[in-house]
Design goal:
The chain is of the alpha/beta class. The strands form four sheets. Strands 9-8-10-11-12-15 form a six-stranded mixed beta sheet. Strands 2-3-1-4-7 form a five-stranded mixed beta sheet, with helices on both faces. The protein has helices at 38-48, 77-81, 92-95, 98-109, 127-135, 144-147, 158-172, 195-200, 208-214, 231-239, 259-270, 279-289, and strands at 2-8, 16-22, 25-33, 54-58, 63-66, 69-72, 88-89, 117-120, 139-142, 203-205, 223-226, 244-247, 251-252, 255-256, 294-297. Strand 10 (203-205), helix 9 (208-214) and strand 11 form a beta-alpha-beta unit. This is Quinate 5-dehydrogenase.
Length: 309
């Protein structure tokens, strides 16, 4: 039995554990939240180092991207370095492979993304998704400055987003991570703010905790493309009127785990040194697993009959 553990800076209320079988291998997959306590997360990684098959680093990214440029988030380094024997991943390998594939799958099999108005809550941490949406012809509002820095400046141009990212990311990556992203108890707080940007969008895409923190009470007819959701998250989206929920990672017994968890599973299956794994390896493994995105209709959309002239 293989064991994969995601050690997260997120809320312990979102903890979950499942047993699954993939490619003939049985796995115990666990998510353990430390409620924003970085030292607790580091200690847990040290305690489990060498006793589990792979770690996922949850609630924080090690890397963010702008085009081909990769930036390291300073606060994530001690967590990564706490594991000396067990491989540890942050999900970026899948964000740049699986999430690109999912967007193309949606465009080809579910709905055309061309000219759809998309609010991408944070593109720097999900650059593969953002780039794939751009390639599909979506009209994207990049919300990185809004949602990560709490400054209401939307970016409408892909080129401008890249220019801004090259300026801001080297600075932002050195900031305390909790200033950029909800951790611990902050993950349970909803602030009715930035409603305008949600209302303008047909599709809301990106990290669910950014979506959850600011989503308005009315999300009628919206499509959500995201990652980690719990059963209670799904109920809340349904209550707010969301039409369709699409998660880039598959559902395991009622829960869509984060990309860090799934990447840790794939690394275990590959049985290959992390420094030798590339995007082709991830894509080959994804082909073998034949993962499909989770697609769930939460509320039907009824077309309004046009009034007779």
């Amino acid at each position: 039995m293989k064991r994969v553990v995601s050690v997260s800076l997120g809320s312990s209320k979102r903890d979950h554990s499942v047993e699954v079988e993939l490619l003939g291998e049985k796995f115990v997959i666990e998510r353990v939240g430390t409620d924003g306590d970085k030292e607790k997360a580091i200690q847990l990684i040290r305690e489990l180092d060498g006793k589990v098959d792979a770690f996922g680093m949850g609630g924080i990214d090690l890397y963010v991207y702008s085009g081909s440029k990769r930036y390291v988030i300073k606060d994530a380094v001690p967590m990564m370095e706490a594991s000396k024997r067990t491989p540890i991943v942050d999900g970026s390998g899948l964000k740049n492979t699986l999430e690109r594939r999912v967007i193309k799958y949606i465009d080809q099999n579910i709905l055309s993304l061309k000219n759809k108005n998309v609010l991408m809550v944070s593109a720097a941490d999900r650059f593969g998704m953002a780039e794939a949406l751009y390639e599909c012809g979506a009209n994207i509002t990049f919300g990185d400055i809004i949602f990560a820095l709490n400054i209401p400046i939307p970016i409408k141009s892909y080129r401008v987003f890249q220019m801004m990212a090259d300026i801001i990311l080297p600075i932002a990556c050195r900031m305390p991570f909790e200033k950029l992203y909800p951790t611990g108890k902050e993950q349970e707080i909803n602030v009715d703010k930035y409603e305008k940007y949600f209302n303008e969008a047909e599709i809301i895409a990106g990290d669910f905790l950014f979506i959850k923190k600011y989503m308005p009470s009315n999300l009628d007819e919206k499509i959500i493309i995201t990652n980690t959701v719990t059963s209670s998250d799904v109920e809340e989206l349904k209550k707010r009127g969301v039409h369709m929920l699409i998660t880039t990672t598959p559902e395991f017994k009622g829960r869509s785990f984060g990309t860090n968890v799934l990447e840790a599973v794939l690394v275990t299956l590959m049985n290959k040194s992390l420094d030798l794994i590339n995007s082709d390896d991830y894509n080959t493994m994804l082909d073998r697993l034949n993962f499909k995105p989770r697609v769930e209709i939460l509320n039907e959309v009824y077309l309004k009959a046009e009034s007779a002239e």
